[in-house]
Design brief:
Layout: H1 16-30, E1 37-38, H2 50-63, H3 79-90, E2 102-105, H4 108-114, E3 125-129, H5 133-142, E4 148-149, E5 154-155, E6 158-162, E7 180-184, H6 196-209, E8 212-216, E9 242-247, H7 249-252, E10 260-263, E11 269-270, E12 273-274, H8 275-286, H9 292-301, H10 304-330, E13 335-337, E14 343-347, H11 354-365, E15 367-368, E16 370-371, E17 382-386, H12 391-402
Parallel strand pairs: 1-15, 3-6, 3-7, 7-8, 8-9
Antiparallel strand pairs: 2-10, 4-5, 9-10, 11-12, 13-14, 14-17, 16-17
Helix pairs in contact: 2-9, 3-9, 4-5, 10-12
Bound molecules: D-malate.
């Protein structure tokens, strides 16, 4: 008789955003008259920028002719895209990252879920609490997290680094020494950031204890303040301890188009073995690459017109985030984030739990957000709203919240 991977059975409930979608659909069926405003999942609402659409059209036409048709993409991704990334995202910021240290993929969610495969099962992971659920859940599936305690909502073999109001939502070095450290800045869900010198301390720490930092920089385009790093490779020594995950979803609206990349410097080694070589082996074996037309669209993000257009889009979402933060504060809420991030992290009123506030907001204002406790126990009593809606809906949602 076959056996299943029973690590899957240890996972409590379903994926956070699937859960929310089910609840919202049920509410909508019961209340078909309600106009629901969705500020829950961080999904973009603006169409792809014109420069990106032009590149897509051009690439589709190329696929229509034998002379320009493309089949399988190269394992690491097309050089034109990797060169554009190496120049714009790294060289121009003073970071030393070569094009062949960049692996193109169909998004940061998959990469952040898959990257744990190249590490031994007895590695100890450390995560911020609250945290993007994919980091923990993918390690549960692999069997790296021990047992789950429903009372504390914690896994026995995971090191949690609480990010709370008290520490400005910035993790502190854990008491136990981790092997893999997941960091995401600007942070999902809290919208908090850390400064370059704080990140440098993490890099120094990882090099000292022999840990790898898995740095999720999916929201770097939203940084507005000068001393906040866009890449971990701005820190000295990061080439020997850090992997960076990037996405085109949030900076250029590719949530449905799918494109991302992972950077693994060749200096990052365990007992002389390059992690780059392991990820290259995995990529070659399990993945056939993002489509040519999508990689051409990604290249257009770095064109002069593309850069201008995506910067305008980011500014549009940031105006929403500012509207949410300021609107909430004016209505008497305590709210964080929304300065270097599209996410606003608010304290639930009247000691409501995160899920109680979710139901209250859905039922009374027909506004959908994300309960903070869905991101981990330290998220209890908090709630996340996203700036990725339309401006009109954002204003309408805030007006409804103000009237509650
Ligand atoms: C979120 O809402 O946290 C993100 O959209 C999820 C993701 O990027 O996968």
């Amino acid at each position: 008789m076959f056996k299943i991977n029973d690590n899957y059975l240890k996972l409590p409930g379903s994926y956070l955003f699937s859960n929310i979608a089910k609840k919202v659909n049920a509410f909508s069926e019961q209340h078909p008259e309600a106009t629901i405003i969705r500020l829950g999942i961080g999904d973009v609402t603006q169409p792809l920028a014109p420069a990106i659409i032009d590149a897509l059209h051009g690439a589709v036409d190329e696929m229509a002719h034998a002379e320009t048709f493309r089949g399988y993409a190269p394992d690491l991704g097309y050089e034109f895209l990797r060169n554009a990334i190496a120049k714009n995202d790294f060289a121009d910021r003073g970071c030393e990252i070569a094009a062949d240290e960049i692996f193109i993929s169909d998004g940061a969610k998959c990469d952040s879920g898959n990257i744990q495969e190249i590490f031994s099962l007895d590695n100890r992971i450390a995560v911020c609490d609250p945290v993007y659920p994919v980091y923990v859940d993918s390690n549960v599936m692999a069997g790296r997290t021990g047992s789950y305690d429903p009372l504390t909502e914690r896994w026995s073999d995971v090191i949690y680094m609480p990010c709370t109001e008290a520490n400005g939502f910035a993790p502190e070095f854990p008491k136990q020494t981790p092997d893999l450290i997941y960091l995401c800045f600007p942070n999902n869900p809290t919208g908090a950031t850390i400064t370059k010198s704080q990140l440098q301390e993490w890099v120094d720490y990882a090099n000292r204890v022999g840990a790898v930092i898995l740095f999720d920089a999916a929201y770097e385009a939203y940084i507005s303040e000068d001393d906040v790093p866009h890449s971990i490779y701005e820190c000295e020594g990061a080439r020997t301890c850090a992997i960076e995950l990037r996405s085109f979803s949030k900076n250029a609206g590719f949530t449905g188009t799918r494109l991302g990349f992972t950077v693994i410097p060749k200096d990052l080694k365990a007992n002389g073995v390059m992690l780059h070589a392991l990820w290259a082996r995995r990529h070659g074996t399990k993945y056939n690459g993002a489509p040519y037309i999508v990689q051409k669209a990604g290249e257009a993000v770095y064109s002069e017109a593309g850069k201008k257009q995506v910067t305008e889009q980011v500014a549009y979402y940031m105006k929403n985030a500012q509207t949410i933060r300021e609107g909430l504060q004016a209505a008497g809420f305590t709210a964080y984030g929304g300065v270097n991030s599209p996410y606003v992290w608010l304290k639930t009123p009247d000691h409501m739990t995160s899920w109680e506030f979710f139901d209250y907001l859905l039922e009374q204002a027909n506004v959908v957000g994300t309960p903070g406790s869905g991101f981990g126990p330290s998220g209890e009593g908090y709630f996340r709203l996203t700036g990725f809606g339309t401006y009109e809906n954002t204003l309408a949602a805030l007006e409804r919240i103000r009237r509650l």
